[in-house]
Amino acid sequence: MQSGEKPAAAAEVRVLGSWASPFVMRVMVALRLKGVEYELLQETMGKKSELLLASNPVHKKIPVLLHRGKPISESLVIVQYVDEVWPPPASILPRDDPYAAAIHRFWGQYIDDMVSTLASMQFPPRIRILRGTVPGDKDEASDEMTTALLYLEEAFVECSKGKQYFGDDSIGYLDIALGSHLGWIRAVERIAGVELLGGAKVPNLAAWADRFCGHPAVVDVMPDVDILVEFTAKLI
Fold this sequence. Notes:
Layout: E1 13-17, H1 22-34, E2 39-42, H2 50-55, E3 64-67, E4 70-73, H3 75-85, H4 98-119, H5 124-131, H6 138-160, H7 173-179, H8 182-192, H9 203-213, H10 225-233
Parallel strand pairs: 1-2
Antiparallel strand pairs: 1-3, 3-4
Helix pairs in contact: 1-3, 4-6, 4-7, 5-6, 8-10
């Protein structure tokens, strides 16, 4: 910077995160659905920037949304914030239907409780079991994930009402919550040699997954499976 120049102003909307995090992807998809421009500030794995520590001093983890300098943490909290701050036409949670919104929040929490432990960056121990490289019940680990996806297959039928997505004809809260894990689910399938999201077991989810990954708000931020597999090799 030359003498007398002012530092560049920070973007109004910034995201602290990592390209490999499904939770960060949730935030980016929500912002892209709303047409909001944002700046992604990449965090280095194994390190925590001063900005992250200052923005999320309680959990000290990504993602964090900085909106006009004010931090919001926890991915699904951020998704709801984005939905409320930036109005329709794109609505993420069902509007004018508190019961439907509550159902979507319930399944969103279920995804975080049951699916993310196997299909996110917290999963190396389970992948080792699925691969048979450490003691553990490979079939049991696979069955846990399959059971969770079967429940979500039923939830898709209930929530979508025959439409394209959990959120009706457009991507909504549950699409974002589960869809953010699809890259990692595919990586787990390839690494462990198991089928988790096969059309025979969960046909509606399998078809939905293809639609979700091809959506304009998703296609540019969904991590490449080959890169995730290579990335995972360093963790396990």
